[in-house]
Design brief:
By secondary structure, this protein is α/β, with parallel strands linked by helices. It has 11 helices and 22 strands. Among the domains are: 149 residues, no CATH class; 72 residues.
Length: 453
């Protein structure tokens, strides 16, 4: 594939698989413009990885690599020779490696002997620094070795080890420039805690809500703007408590909430729930599960200022949920302008169009179905005196830089909102009192026609 892109600048592969028992035959390709490579390799031994570097990536300046199991990825001397001989332009080196062995003192000592070689003058001179931690799962020892170099990246993954295995080589890091903190691993009362004073985004990447440490010891919750919860079962009560401390949250994504049927009404009637509902500023909500009407109503009541909602929906209640969300009489969601239904069959597009036409519940709207997702845009006009708005919908081929359009519109006092999916640039939603607006792409520039022009 690379041979078809001789002018490639950046390459990212989320899953690069290799085969241990076959010899790779690679033809060298000169990718003179390639400077950035980000690879997540699976079952690709270090010998084959070296071939990739030699044949394709000699000119790169930035390498981000995630690898598993092959201990040769922890051979500092081999890395040093590879970099000196074949990656002479490399400025950014970011390594993340997972090693799996039997849990015993001998295995840990061998592991430490390997990683200690990453503190030689070669690494220090380039300011490439690393740290690690351990986990024990049954009889297995899992070692996580990763870069602490921050460069210009603003994301940091925080790992937890078990209490018995806090390692003396673990380095505590205080990262003032980090904006996004991701918490992974298992809980630990005594794990070393890093503090990120300027973080505005937090992600839980856990199997459950096992983190017991006070989150304010990690970052200031009041500064958070985005919260992502990847736990498979996150109690709704825990979510409510978390939202109480994240008063400036703008975006919330949650994989699955755990709530009993008897808790729905009790939760909504509680003073604590109402207090969260009145003060939270969440405008973008993503729920990555199949929700019933009751659960959608619960979240809408919790986040009444929603403008964008993405969620799976119970097929039997699909149209009931749509009616609730786009109803003109529903005060809780008067600002909703974008709806994405996850895992939606193609027939849902016809159902939605027919339903809206029969019910006459929406005037200005746009609907489409792409990659099992159903998209609905509805125009929100905050000004009661708005008389007329004319929009010209454009495709990605006609206009590929929506941020330029937003930059033109916002200084004029308009609100602009653009979404892109597949090859379609959806409706641009504008609101301006008493003005007719036509937006279109003309020879590389944007033309705006207002009354009097």
């Amino acid at each position: 594939i690379l041979s078809y892109f001789p002018n490639l600048h950046r390459l990212s592969i989320d899953y690069l698989d290799g085969i241990y028992d076959k010899q790779l035959k690679l033809d060298s390709i000169h990718l003179k413009s390639l400077s950035y490579v980000n690879l997540k390799v699976q079952c690709l031994n270090f010998n084959h990885f070296e071939q990739l570097i030699i044949n394709y990536f000699q000119q790169i300046t930035s390498l981000y690599l995630s690898s598993k199991y092959d201990v040769d990825y922890l051979n500092a001397n081999r890395w040093q020779q590879l970099i000196l001989n074949y990656m002479k332009n490399l400025k950014i080196f970011d390594l993340y490696h997972i090693d799996l062995n039997r849990f015993d003192n001998n295995s840990q000592q061998i592991y430490h002997n390997l990683i200690e070689n990453f503190v030689s003058p070669f690494w220090i001179k380039r300011q490439w620094f690393f740290t690690h931690h351990h986990e024990q799962q049954g009889n297995c020892h899992i070692g996580y070795f990763y870069s602490t170099n921050l460069y210009k990246k603003k994301e940091y993954t925080l790992y937890y080890g078990t209490d018995e295995n806090n390692c003396q080589f673990y380095q505590q890091i205080n990262c003032d420039k980090i904006k996004h903190v991701r918490i992974c691993g298992t809980q630990s009362k005594n794990s070393i805690i890093n503090y990120f004073p300027n973080a505005i985004e937090l992600t839980f990447d856990l199997f459950n809500d096992s983190i017991t440490v006070d989150l304010n010891r990690i970052l200031p919750l009041s500064k958070l703007r985005k919260l992502v919860i990847e736990c498979y079962q996150f109690p709704f009560k825990r979510l409510i408590k978390l939202l109480y401390s994240t008063i400036n949250l703008n975006s919330l994504k949650i994989r699955r909430t755990l709530i009993n049927d008897s808790e729905y009404q009790l939760s909504q009637q509680s003073e604590f729930f109402q207090m969260i509902s009145n003060k939270n500023m969440i405008k973008n909500l993503i729920i990555d599960e199949c929700c019933t009407l009751t659960k959608i109503q619960l979240f809408v009541g919790l986040c009444p200022r929603l403008q964008q909602l993405t969620s799976g929906m119970n097929r039997k209640e699909f149209l009931l949920i749509v009616r609730f969300l786009v109803s003109k009489t529903e005060k809780n969601i008067k600002n909703l302008s974008f709806l994405c239904v996850l895992h939606a069959p193609k027939v849902s597009l016809k159902e939605m169009k027919k339903f809206i036409k029969l019910e006459k519940i929406l005037d200005d709207h746009s609907i489409n179905h792409v990659d099992r997702k159903l998209y609905l845009w509805c125009c929100v006009l905050p000004y009661k005196t708005t008389r007329h708005i004319t929009l010209k919908i454009i495709t990605c081929d006609q206009y590929k830089h929506q941020h330029t359009m937003a930059a033109v519109l916002i200084p004029l006092g308009w609100e602009a909102l653009a979404y892109t999916f597949g090859v379609i640039a959806a409706s641009i939603l504008l609101a301006k009192t008493g003005e007719e607006v036509i937006i279109e792409k003309k020879k590389g520039s944007i033309r705006q026609e207002l009354p009097g022009q």
